[in-house]
Specification:
Elements lengths: L4 E6 L5 H8 L4 E6 L5 H11 L18 H11 L22
InterPro entries: Glyco_trans_2-like, Glycosyltransf_2, Nucleotide-diphossugar_trans
Organism: Leptospira interrogans serovar Pyrogenes str. L0374
Protein name: Glycosyltransferase-like protein, family 2 domain protein
Length: 100
């Protein structure tokens, strides 16, 4: 599968640079911006930089299962390009804890 990962770092204070560098893959690209946390600016920049036909967003507070993108591609192929948008929402609930 042809893919790319565009990481938009909106002035984070974590180790985003090191994480992106650790992949050692030119398909994983980092762009740094500073826009006071306006998520739409970050997303629009990611869309502008994307070269593929499909885009999937992953925010810093999201958790993806290991096969998430594989499953999304399966659903897109199953529908044979009859769709323009595919959305899903999941919650992980641990016993004795709040919804995440």
């Amino acid at each position: 599968m042809n893919w790319e990962a565009i990481v938009i770092d909106n002035h984070s204070n974590d180790n985003t640079d090191e994480v992106v560098s650790s992949f050692g893959n030119s398909k994983v690209r980092l762009t740094k911006i500073k826009n006071n946390g306006v998520i739409s600016v970050s997303r629009n920049l990611g869309i502008k930089e994307a070269k593929g036909d499909w885009i999937s967003f992953l925010d810093s507070d999201d958790l993806w299962f290991p096969n998430k993108l594989e499953r999304v591609v399966f659903e897109i192929q199953k529908l044979e390009n009859q769709i323009d948008v595919l959305c899903n929402d999941e919650y992980m609930v641990h016993l004795n804890q709040k919804k995440k």
